[in-house]
Amino acid sequence: MRRREFITLLGGAAAAWPLAARAQQPDRMRLIGVLIGFAESDPFAQSLAAAFRGSLPKLGWTEGSNLRIEFRWGAGDADRIGMLAKELVDLRPDAILGMTTPVIRALARETRTIPIVFALVADPIGSGFAASLAQPGSNITGFTTIESAMGGKWMELLKEIAPRTVRVALLFNPATAPPLRFYMPSILAAASSFAVQASTAPVHAKDEIEGVIAAQARDPGGSLIVMPDAFNLTNRDLIIAPAARFGVPAISSDRIYAESGGLISYGVDFAGLLRQAAGYVDRILQGDKPADLPIQNPTKFELVVNLKTAKALGLTVPESILLRADEVIE
To answer: What is the average pLDDT value for the chain, to the nearest integer?
Structure first.
């Protein structure tokens, strides 16, 4: 074979190599820390971990070969999350994946140098994690879960499925929830348009949840918005059961809420976000800086309705909701 033909063939072959092969991973073992704000025993949390973990081999990372992952689970407890954040940072990982606002808040206190990729964070700018979406400008970047206008959408859907609603309480734990001000303008605007009185209902412990729901049931027309919050998600069964018992319609941003017996949910495709987060972790391990990776807003939302729960509450789900639903649980 002539030398010129050999060089041409070699150049063509290199261009055709798969991306994963061209970006051959280094021989040394890389370490990723993962801090999840939910309990390890929670099937929903495990599904998120699996979505992230399952995406890494497709990007050329194999656990036990060129990658090690250290998982930690916060169980919706702010103090525990803070302790685990320090524990992970002390391991000096090459990158950290964090899920939920309290997790990123804790990690940001511990390090300004280790790259952090987040998921399940609503307001990274308002929370002080980044300078802007386009140019985070720090060691933190990732994927948001909710736009501020979502608050109005929850109010609209709740009024549509439970038209007798005249009062709505926003259930959240101040220690673990994203800043409430992120959602309030859209919630209050929608509530005003429907002549609904909206009020905040902060809770600090599990045994306070039932009291909030019972208060909404004392007079007709009380409903509930289960705000995005690691505490709420971890304790969803303690919200769903009394809501059913007291006959209080409730909406959540988390799909697992409706799947677990809640009335209705509207929110982002979480598994999809975790697969995207794996892509950002890969880019960081390849040398990209978080400051240069834009924070991305969600593009896919899911509406889930539980017809069995609606029937138990004496509600008739409008055809308009059924036609828009991504899943209807019979």
So the answer is: 91
Task: Let me know: does 290 contact 130? Beta carbons within 8 Å.
Answer: no
Q: What is the CATH number of domain 25-145+269-299?
A: 3.40.50.2300
User: Residue 147: phi, psi to the nearest 5?
Assistant: -90, 155
Q: Token pair of 154, please?
A: 């929850």
Instruction: Quote the pLDDT of residue 299.
Output: 85
State which amino acid sits at residue 73: W
Please tell me whether the overall predicted TM-score, pTM, comes out greater than 0.70 for this model. yes
What does the domain layout of the chain look like in residue ranges? 25-145+269-299, 150-268+302-329
Please count the residues of the chain: 330
The predicted pLDDT at position 26 comes to: 53
Same fold, 25-145+269-299 and 150-268+302-329: yes
Q: For residue 247, give both structure tokens.
A: 């006959």
* Residue corresponding to tokens 């929670």: 42
Main-chain dihedrals φ then ψ at residue 252, nearest 5 degrees: -135, 160
Please report, rounded to a whole number, the percentage of residues in the chain having pLDDT higher than 90: 82
Q: CA separation (Å) from 277 to 3, 35, 224? A: 45, 13, 31
Query: What's residue 27's pLDDT?
Result: 62
